[in-house]
């Protein structure tokens, strides 16, 4: 057994299912070297600092709200102090003066932070001295954002390990050798954090929001990770370990059996086929998608190209990224969603502004249509990547028919520009839209005649139908996409699409939900797109059903009065 | 208390002003001006338009911006230290009075 170290159980949020065991590797913090050079002009450096301070403030506010809910207002007061430090007039004045002297934002900020931290260090009173750690904590948080992706300290994995970190950014995880990752555990972050999405995509368990104590685990500590229950156990005793390993073995056996058949199509007992494809967030995940049996990509999110950087990606860079995905997928269908960001994200080169309701605001296609030159860079790169592949272009957050027409007009312009530059374009490129705003679901027949396919984004469709913000835990009970109000819209969209002969996909979380699978099957959805790791199990579920029985089940489900009732109905039915 | 004054520690840029509010107060709070008390003091200062400066007279510190939490913390104000406050601006009297009251009542009911 693991010797004298005491068993320690930690609770967090179950962010990605599955079990894992192995040694801990803690992502080092604060080991970043501060770059020091002559900055650009004072205004530019100051604007950089202002931009990342906004991001840091949001982060701290989120942490405070979370801690306030879980541990009470007293615990959360620490984060109020962090906000005060972040906004401290003297600290900012000192940074600004250094920038005026020609220093870059990173060095100017960190010098000011160190100045005050040292002053606090030198005080006789121990309570006051302890504040120095808070100043440095805030300093590091801002520095991390200033540096962006390039300068995150890397992690050199030598053996299969459980990754422990404060929170993981896309740039951090991108640098990891995924074949050596057993699971992810983070101190911060919620169920929709990047860590959660990535872990699901890789089929690895993840527990997030474990609190800062998890960062104190010694490197190499033996851990059991339960991504189903959101639990992490360090140095387990013998009984705990034995129980865990029994469960682990059983789960592995089942997963292996399903994975063995993952590359076969998902055909029901009575011969009805559903296309099962993957949601991916970057080119790397496309490979994993194929391994899990994806028949194509139903949603390629393109935000990875735009986030965590200070300038917009140009056409060549985008082309290279799209090519790398399309080359992996060969002639399998790939649906690329154009940029989907809004006021909840910080893109220094876009000036998205602060909005009190970013999910109802100037985002996705709304923003892109207002910035045609910016938008067309992406469209041209996509068109240039198309030859030899089955590329689909999908516009997000469509609300009106006029938006569809405008987007198609811009696509035509981009097409002419690409041709004028002498580049080939594939003969057929399907153009479709996301159905995530109720106005589109309601008028689905009108939209269906304008496009080549409709893909239902159930996360947002549920958010907008139920008027419940996705990231707000307090209204999470309203956000179940199994609600008949959402299911009926899906039914309506499918009927409208099939009327004019186009295919309908579902690409939200619902598509990868085993309980929802027979209902979506019965509603005659043509394509289900999900996190790669969910594919084997969803395919296995579809194969257990007949289309006829699923259709009956779906018919019952849409006449129920709540999401809970729908889930109860599915659980009470054996596949037939 | 209060009224016009002149003193070395304020520096020459302040001497050109005709008038400012001045207070000297003993901090009797058990923990001095630490985390929460300091935060309350800074938040209160932030409510006023006036330029407010504070220093730890007991340790003969420099004058610092009373609206900056880091500056106030670095004064290292402990129980029984005396602090000096100046306020200069359109609401200087209200500001100085409010801060004095806050300290004299041991930040009563706010901690």
Task: Describe the protein in words.
The model of chain A has no long low-confidence stretch (mean pLDDT 90). Chain A is of the alpha/beta class and 576 residues long. The relative contact order of chain A is 0.09. Chain A has helices at residues 42-71, 73-86, 89-100, 105-121, 126-147, 170-174, 194-202, 238-260, 283-291, 315-329, 364-370, 372-385, 401-420, 438-442, 444-448, 458-466, 484-499, 517-522, 535-544, 547-557, 563-571, and strands at 8-11, 13-16, 19-26, 161-165, 181-186, 206-208, 222-226, 231-234, 266-267, 273-280, 297-301, 333-337, 390-395, 430-435, 453-456, 503-506, 527-530. Chain B has a single domain (14-104), classed as Histidine-containing Protein, Chain: A, CATH 3.30.1340.10. In chain B, strands 1-4-2-3 form a 4-stranded antiparallel sheet, covered by helices on one side. Mean pLDDT of chain B is 81; it is low at 1-17. Classes of the chains: A alpha/beta (576), B alpha+beta (111). Chain A binds chain B through residues 77, 80-81, 84-85, 88-91, 116, 119-120, 123-125, 127-128, 131, 135, and chain B through 31-32, 34-36, 39, 42, 64-65, 67-71, 73-74, 76, 78.
Biggest sheet: strand arrangement of chain A: 1-8-7-3-4-5-6-2
Shape of chain A: globular
Q: What's the CATH class label of the largest domain in chain A?
A: Alpha Beta
Shape of chain B: globular
Query: Which fold name fills CATH's third level, the topology of the largest domain in chain A?
Result: TIM Barrel
Q: Which CATH architecture of the largest domain in chain A would you pick?
A: Alpha-Beta Barrel
Spell out the CATH superfamily of the largest domain in chain A.
Phosphoenolpyruvate-binding domains
Oligomer state equals heterodimer
| Beta strands of chain A, count | 17
One letter per element, helices H and strands E, the order of chain B comes to HEHEEHEH
N-to-C span of chain B: 27 Å
For CATH, the homologous superfamily of chain B is named as: HPr-like
Distance between the termini of chain A: 46 Å
